[in-house]
Design goal:
- The chain is mostly helical.
- The protein has a domain at 246-390.
- The protein is built from 19 helices and two strands.
- A two-stranded antiparallel sheet has the order 1-2.
- The longest helix is centred in the middle third of the chain and has 26 residues, at 213-238.
- It is globular, with a radius of gyration of 22 Å.
- It starts with a helix and ends with a strand.
Length: 429
């Protein structure tokens, strides 16, 4: 009886997973994200602009008013909206709300990858598992992990997935796409970079795409126009004017260390690779060969993903926000600084590697390469799984102290990273 019960339970679990792949993928992704840095939930605190700009502006100036203000040259609606909604919960729970939204957004691409809309692009379950797991376990992504400030990078990836996936037939599917395309388009400058991608894809697939795709194009192009106007009129006053300190040698080192090499050799290898052109150059050549081959032979979706990632990386390196005074490229050769700029390219690199290994026809060579790649990657993901927790500034204590202040009082709350402070002006109850 017990054996029969166990077998039936096993079948029921397997059937549930098969019938609810998207939900299961989303929930497992959330669990992995939380386990990489549990303090995001267990001891939630604001990170950088989460508190200093998004929450402080929403609290001090009003949620709706803050929504209309660009930051660093462009609108960041997901951050502003989250801050606005957080005003409806007690202050001590606001960072938790921020982090929950950020975690959910980070999990979306994995869930979408397992939907029926992506089976045409990635038909293999094994490939989808490897890509999804790699996305969740990437090293050097602490900067974009569980904070709203950098959630627009995940939304940019999600928007790309939406426009290249199989077109939805249902009304809820179309509403989903429209909602996230608008949210992504008005959260960061990436709609500007996505516009040529969407136009190229629409032209190449014009015989198979429904006319509703033009609505997607309209959303992306309209969002891009708004962000371009914002950049033109506000970026000079808000973005860093520090010199780049750029060079071809430094470019090779950065790409080799923070993109191609880090997946196989881990976060601790970044400084070693970026510190030696003799290590960086062969890695750069090998990585560039694989990317170039994918641009030549892969399907149109991967080709456009490579192009989109390249545009993102070019734009980021052309105008980074690393320092307000020091040369910026030299500061990025460490494992953590500026890692957000390499996040989407890292996902692209993983997808390109999976594709490249899948097309190798010589079985023995394929097995050897996959074995070595798997060993190195698994070691990297295991060693770099745990992300460094935020310094505990006892946010709940400060929230309680702020609550006891009289109206009009100014209060500074220390937040991560070190030396950042959120300034709030107490409002009447």
């Amino acid at each position: 009886m017990n054996r029969e019960f166990l077998e039936n339970s096993k079948k029921n679990i397997i059937n549930f997973i098969k019938n609810h792949k998207v939900l299961v993928a989303f929930l497992l992704s959330v669990i992995i994200i939380i386990f990489r840095r549990p303090d995001a939930i267990l001891n939630a605190q604001f990170w950088a602009e989460d508190g200093v700009i998004w929450f402080a502006d929403a609290y001090n100036n009003g949620g709706l008013a803050s929504l209309l203000h660009p930051q660093n040259g462009y609108f960041q609606s997901i951050s502003r909206l989250t801050a606005w909604f957080s005003l409806f919960v007690p202050l001590q729970y606001s960072p938790l709300l921020f982090n929950i939204v950020a975690i959910a957004i980070k999990a979306l691409p994995v869930a979408f990858l397992w939907s029926d809309r992506f089976t045409r692009i990635v038909p293999s379950d094994k490939a989808r598992f490897i890509i999804g797991a790699s996305y969740l376990l990437l090293p050097t992504i602490g900067e974009v992990h569980s904070n709203i400030t950098n959630s627009h990078w995940h939304l940019a990836l999600y928007a790309f997935m939406i426009i290249t996936a199989r077109f939805p037939k249902s009304i809820p599917g179309k509403i989903h796409d429209i909602f996230f395309l608008i949210l992504s388009g008005l959260s960061g400058p990436f709609s500007v970079l996505l516009s040529p991608i969407a136009l190229i894809y629409g032209w190449l697939k014009r015989k198979s795409l429904p006319s509703f795709y033009y609505i997607y194009l309209l959303i992306i192009l309209s969002s891009a126009s708004i962000q371009i106007a914002s950049v033109i009129f506000t970026s000079e006053a808000t973005r860093s004017q520090a010199p780049l300190g750029a060079s071809i040698i430094l470019f090779i080192k950065l790409i080799s260390a923070k993109l191609f090499g880090v997946v196989f050799f881990g976060e601790k290898s970044v400084n070693d690779i970026s510190g030696s052109i003799y290590l960086a150059l062969p890695i750069f050549i090998a990585g560039t060969f694989i990317i170039s081959y994918a641009l030549w032979k892969a399907n149109i979706e991967l080709k456009l993903f490579i192009l989109f990632s390249a545009l993102m990386l070019f734009a980021a390196l052309h105008s980074p926000m690393i320092s307000l005074s020091k040369p910026q490229w030299p500061l990025m050769d460490s494992e953590s600084t500026g890692s957000r700029y390499f996040f989407v390219p890292l996902v692209m690199w993983i997808v390109s590697l999976v594709w490249f290994l899948s097309i190798i026809k010589m079985k023995k060579i394929k097995i050897i390469l996959m074995l070595f790649a798997g060993i190195f990657a698994i070691h990297t993901f295991a060693v770099d799984f745990k992300l460094k927790p935020y310094k505990d500034f006892n946010f709940s204590k400060h929230a309680k102290e702020f609550k006891s202040l009289p109206p009009g009082a100014t209060y500074k709350i220390p937040i991560n990273p070190k030396k950042w402070e959120m300034v709030l002006v107490k409002k009447p109850q």
